[in-house]
């Protein structure tokens, strides 16, 4: 496993979202890759991911991601799990929407020195009953947002 390759693919995935480029986002998945969004909606396969996101990007002003990779590890030969936390910066703001933060689990398949996403799972980071953990994550994501160059 090349950690750099996995991290680069993940950064490309977020960058495609931030550019609102549904085709580039979907191209980073395996042919039958799966994406489960923050709201629980599921997309199956590159074609559905691309068409669904194209409609979302056309009809909504999506925000941009601020992210922090937590860990990357190989779970089987050629199968890698990346875990991260993400926050969302609304399209009309430079401040994080603290109500929209999530953990992401991304399973990658590595073949021929290339990484592709098999599964992207975004789970709301509500931390019910643990406001201290939620606050620490909010502060971390805000620091990341401040360090990024954002364009809206």
Describe this structure in words.
The protein has 152 residues and is α+β, with helices and mostly antiparallel strands. It has a single domain, classed as Nuclear Transport Factor 2, Chain: A (Roll). It is built from four helices and six strands; from the N terminus they run ααββαββββα. It has helices at residues 3-19, 22-27, 46-59, 131-147, and strands at 29-36, 42-44, 64-76, 79-89, 97-111, 114-124. A hairpin with a 2-residue loop joins β3 and β4 (79-89).
Strand-helix topology:
Elements: H1 3-19, H2 22-27, E1 29-36, E2 42-44, H3 46-59, E3 64-76, E4 79-89, E5 97-111, E6 114-124, H4 131-147
Parallel strand pairs: 1-6
Antiparallel strand pairs: 1-2, 3-4, 4-5, 5-6
Give a concise summary.
By secondary structure, the protein is an alpha+beta fold. The chain has four helices and six strands, in the order H-H-E-E-H-E-E-E-E-H. The model has no long low-confidence stretch (mean pLDDT 88).
Features:
single chain; alpha+beta; Nuclear Transport Factor 2, Chain: A; 6-stranded mixed β-sheet; 152 residues; globular; 36% helix
């Amino acid at each position: 496993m090349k950690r750099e390759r996995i991290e680069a693919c993940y950064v490309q995935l977020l960058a495609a979202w931030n550019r609102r480029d549904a085709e580039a986002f979907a191209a980073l998945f395996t042919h039958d890759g799966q994406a489960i969004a923050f709201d629980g909606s599921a997309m199956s396969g590159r074609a559905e991911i691309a068409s669904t996101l194209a409609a979302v990007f056309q009809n909504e002003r999506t925000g941009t991601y601020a992210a922090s990779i937590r860990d990357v590890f190989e779970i089987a030969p050629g199968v890698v799990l990346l875990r991260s936390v993400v926050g969302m910066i609304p399209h009309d703001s430079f401040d994080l929407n603290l109500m929209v933060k999530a953990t992401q689990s991304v399973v990658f398949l590595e073949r021929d020195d290339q990484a592709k996403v098999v599964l992207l799972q975004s789970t709301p980071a509500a931390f019910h009953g643990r406001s201290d953990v939620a606050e620490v994550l909010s502060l971390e994501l805000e620091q990341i947002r401040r360090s990024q160059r954002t364009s809206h």
